[in-house]
Amino acid sequence: MVGLSEGSVDPGRTYRSEHRRRGASRAQITLLRHGEPNWAPGGGASVDDPGLTPYGRRQAEQAAAALAKERVDHIYVSPYRRSRETAAPLARRLGLEAVPVPAFREVEVNVGGLTSQEEVDAYFVEATQRPLAEHWSGWPGAESFDAFHTRVRAALLEVLARHDVQPTTEADFTVWQLREPGPHIVIVAHGGTNAVLATHLLDIRPVPWEWLRFESQLAAYSVFQARPLGPNGHVWSLTNFNELDHLRPLP
Q1: How far is CA 92 from CA 88, 89, 204, 224, in A?
Q2: Per-residue b/e over 12-50, b at no fewer than 16 CB within 10 Å?
Q3: CA of 213: how far to CAs of 110, 150, 160, 216, in Å?
Q4: Between the CA of residue 103 and those of 58, 137, 158, 163, 178, what are the distances in Å?
Q5: Which of 159, 221, 214, 160 shows the shortest CA–CA distance to 188?
Q6: Got the DSSP string for the chain?
Q7: The dihedral of CA 153, 245, 226, 69: what is its sign?
Q8: Considering the entire predicted model, what is its pTM?
Q9: Mind listing the pLDDT tens digit of every residue in the chain (251 residues)?
Q10: What top-level class would CATH report for the domain 26-108+143-247?
Q11: Residue 130: how many CB atoms within 10 A of its CB?
């Protein structure tokens, strides 16, 4: 075996050292998207608040098995059924309550009166083709994306404040104050909601198409860990995005 020369760096030791530093994170937030929703139960009319399909329930179980391997202190969830049913297996495994946060619901749309999937698809396609300056107004006739960002961010700040995690501004940057060892939180919500949460955690300029910038698949999760930076604060580091390995065994 070829040994390391004097003064060289052992890559294995470097990896282990980095792994230990990550493990010493003061706080962690995991964003889990809900599993596959059953929009038309029994092949009938579409419903406004669907639960999960059988496949979606299996996705939820697989996600729970993966996330339960690590420390989880608190679970927060969108009030919609597909999110609550996705959170339920993880809450059971850990003996925790999945606390609903109404403001973590998905952005509101208005497809009332549209009777076919073709009409619904056309509604979204036409909206995405508008001039970019018009996109903050939201989907036609529905909640604006500006209002969506505002309510999701406010809910995030409220949730973190419950666990003594507070943002402060320093030199035009957002840094976070937290009390050691910091909470490990799982939020189970939606593609749009989780994308907006990611934007605010990473302190980047928001856009009205966050679900495209941080696109996550059904039952995928992303992990943000706190990292000390500057004299007193922490910033959030995106350490795992759109994790899907836990779903690969599914038929």
Answers
A1: 6, 5, 35, 23
A2: eeeeeeeeeeeeebbbbbbbbbbbbbbeeeeeeeeeeeb
A3: 23, 18, 24, 9
A4: 26, 18, 11, 18, 23
A5: 221
A6: -PPPPTT---HHHHHHHHHHHHHT-S-EEEEEE---B-SSGGG-S--SS--B-HHHHHHHHHHHHHHTTS---EEEE-SSHHHHHHHHHHHHHHT--EEE-GGGSPPP---TT--SHHHHHHHHHHHHTS-GGGGGG-STTS--HHHHHHHHHHHHHHHHHTTTEEEEEETTEEEEEE-TT--EEEEEE-HHHHHHHHHHHTT----TTHHHHT---TT-EEEEEEEEETTTEEEEEEEEEEE-GGGTT--
A7: positive
A8: 0.88
A9: 445 555 555 655 554 555 555 555 589 999 999 999 998 787 665 778 899 999 999 999 999 999 999 999 999 999 999 999 999 999 999 999 999 999 999 999 987 766 577 888 888 899 999 999 999 999 999 999 999 999 999 999 999 999 999 999 988 999 999 988 899 999 999 999 999 999 999 999 999 999 999 999 999 999 999 999 988 899 999 999 999 999 987 66
A10: alpha beta
A11: 11
Token couple for 145: 């994306």
Please report where in the chains the tokens 């493990």 appear, as a residue: 23
Here the tokens at position 109 are 């749309």
Q: How far is CA 20 from CA 16, 17, 113, 157, 233, in A?
A: 6, 5, 55, 28, 20
